[in-house]
Amino acid sequence: MKRKISAIIALTAALGCAACIQSTAQAETNEANAEKTSEADSGDSSAAGAETGVFNFETHTVLLNSGYEMPIMGLGTYSLSDEECYNSVTALLEAGGRLIDTAYMYGNEAAVGRAVRDSDVPREDIFVITKLYPGEQFANPEKAIQDALDKLDIGYIDMMLLHHPGENDVKAYHAMEQAVADGKIHSIGLSNWYVEELEEFLPQVTITPALVQNEIHPYYQENDVIPYIQEHGIVVQGWYPFGGRGHTSELLGDPVISEIAAAHGVTSAQVILRWNLQKGVVVIPGSGNPDHIRENLDLFGFELSDDEMDPINGLNRDEKHDWY
Fold first, then answer.
1. Would you put residue 56 in left (φ > 0), alpha (ψ -120 to 50) or beta?
2. How far apart, in whole angstroms, are the C-alpha atoms of residue 116 and residue 316?
3. Which CATH number goes with the domain that contains 21?
4. Cα–Cα distance between 289 and 102 in angstroms, integer?
5. Where are the alpha helices (DSSP H) in 154-254?
6. Domain limits at 77?
7. From 106, 173, 220, 240, active-site residue
8. Can you give the pLDDT at residue 181?
9. Mean per-residue pLDDT, 150-155
10. Which residues partner with 190 through β-bridges?
11. Is residue 319 part of a domain?
């Protein structure tokens, strides 16, 4: 499912001269890995001709600017305890989901890793995102990256993000860039970065983020932020798709959304997630309920028309539900 596209070119272009000091050994490693991946994927040309950042609704993936494919829907594990997290990730993988979002601050990286290792799904078909948190992790990013690798214990990290802006965030990002060169992380990005923060941050780094993950839901649509991110070749991912704690019932019960859901014979949750996908936003709804997890993956049997997208777009209140 995931495959590296032109691995040497992508890595060299991203790292520039900084990577040239180790180019020979690294290029040989990348070339070998690319050849292995190409052989493994022979007969599956779904990535051939794929355009970076454009959602493929047949394969349910998007090609990142790092050259890797990522599923466009998955599971967020925020607030899930160890055992609940393990069971939820297991339910996701059994239902066909392949994208899992965790973080150091969630305290469940080990549970995610255990579920991945215990699954019958090949490791290369699973995409795991985790995050470094400001403070000690930003101050000592090399240790923080290794700690995440050790806790997950799944060989490599598909995507690592900085959890939100903070002191030493550029330093931490540079450490993630080095981890990409070392093959420990495949793709890197940011969480809770908006236009002003991105304008300041991007000129200070070498590898353009592959992903920016922000709060996005019908009451907080980020209509100025999403296009800005996408214009930079960066994929957008939304957390709190159902509005977050204390707001979910209101959003799922919104008459505009409920009416559209009834017309398609689906749930309000599915309408909201499909709305995100059609806006080019990857969805990672959190859930500890296996039935809801399966439901949240079932987004491709219907499509929202412009006459349905527009009323949902009209629900925006610029109403942010968390402080990030």
1. beta
2. 37
3. 3.20.20.100
4. 17
5. 169-181, 195-201, 225-231, 248-252
6. 7-313
7. 106
8. 98
9. 98
10. 162, 212
11. no
User: Nearest-CA neighbor of 157 among 104, 214, 196?
Assistant: 104
Cross-strand bridge partners of residue 281: 236
Answer whether residue 2 is part of any domain.
no
Strands 75-76 and 99-101: parallel
Model confidence at 286: pLDDT above 60? yes
Degrees, nearest 5: CA angle 256-224-219: 25
Active site residue 173: no
Q: For residue 170, is pLDDT > 90?
A: yes
Instruction: Classify residue 321: in a domain, yes or no.
Output: no
pTM of the model: 0.86
Residue 232 lies in a domain: yes
Q: Determine which helix (DSSP H) or strand (DSSP E) holds 276, and give its type and residue range.
A: helix 268-278
End-to-end CA distance of the chain: 32
Distance (Å, rounded) from C-alpha 182 to C-alpha 79? 31
Position 117, amino acid? R
- Identify the three-state secondary structure at position 85: helix
User: What total number of domains does the chain contain?
Assistant: 1
What per-residue confidence (pLDDT) applies to 244? 87
CA distance 174 to 172: 5
The per-residue pLDDT for 78 is 95
